[in-house]
Amino acid sequence: LVRQKDKLHQVLVEHGIDMLAMFDQELNFLYSGGSTFRIMGYLPEQLIGTNALRYIHPDDIPQVQEALRQILTSQDTVKLSNFRFRDAKGAWRWIETTVSNQLKNPNVRTLVSNSRDITNRVKSRLELEKLSLVAKKTINGVVIFDANGRVEWVNDGFTRITGYTSAEAVGKFPAVFLAGEETDMVTIQRIREKLRQDQPFTEEVITYKKSGQKMWVALDFTPVLNDRGELLNVIALQTEITERKQAEIQQLKFTQDLYRQNNDLQQFTYVVSHNLRSPVANVMGLVDILSTLDKASDEFDITLAYLKKSTGKLDSVLKDLNMILSFRDKEEFIEIVAVGVAEKCQQAVEDLQELLQRSGGKVNMDIDESIVVHGNKSYIYSIFHNLLTNSVKYRSPKRPLQIDIRCISSDSNGTTISFQDNGLGFDIALAGDKLFKLYKRFHDNSEGRGVGLFLIKSHLDAMGGRVEVTSEVDVGTKFLIYFR
What we know:
With about 475 residues, this protein is of the alpha+beta class. It has 16 helices and 17 strands. The protein is rod-shaped and about 150 Å long.
């Protein structure tokens, strides 16, 4: 039994995770266990007879000497943590040691130490301390999430940017307290999907401070995985980019305005060169003719009638240009309010009731009176007025005119109105990008001037909406009006 215990003790000494050693009172090695070779690379005979201080880092010698003084003056076990010991390859290893004073034990008469290599632990701690210092001092927000997406820790930068303290954020999902009215939930969903891929990525999104103030933030996500590739945490670096985004939005608006102004200039150039040139040329020619005619002749009266007609066309074009230019000047300052869609649509129908009756037109309107959009009252009325007028102008002679107006959808993302007639229709492919251009017509009907569709699109652009058109010759036309 004694022999079995000795063998067990030898196995523990030679193969345990701890290094056992014995010293005299001056810290000279008297014994070194076999684990020392496996961990530090020294054979026992290399250490025995040498002084332990020669292997200890110079900066750590004072604390070791102080620990030795305590050991020699006390019978208690002394623990010495975090000192560096040079291994056989010359590298410094962090050691944690417990020393027991057995000098008065007649069977031992040595100092007995039990040491453990804690290099990896110390390096991890030091690395965490550095990261913690960086996280605390950085002006950016740092958020650490658990594997489920809840906040585990935030730095002072996060509090400074958002106004939320650590106590208010920890344990919550960020979307619960940072999202708001203008937060893009599509982006939030994309972030959630990317987090499942355990890969670093960056996103930009609108969030809200505790005060309710809106801000843009750039988020850099980095997943932290364990050795088995399982997600432990996600670290997010948060940078406020509100000023940059505002500059980008302003630049985009400037570019769009420049494009629109250039487009308008091209259209106005076309109007001047075609729609104005023709009546002006007619007027000039007719005036020349009138100067040669007898005022009492029939030819004079006929020519004068043509002159009045040409000047009327000229006046009409000038009025259109004046209206469009006036509209452009006021576009930046239009009043955006809550507008009842059904009310404005009904108002346009009633104002055109006589025209609809004369043309035999029937209007079916299915828009709930509770549906409200953010827009300009005059513009929304004008949109319905122009759509109804166009349907009457371009009705089919083969069948009674029928117009169906209904709400397709209405939610937080906006309202969609369908406006459909059974009129002449037109070839969409042939119209191409000229569909909403000024003075572009797609029928021979003399009533149309090619202004209505231009105004409809312009009104919607000014309110942040849009329009889509589908049409089929001799079947009818359908407009989808998207309000914010």
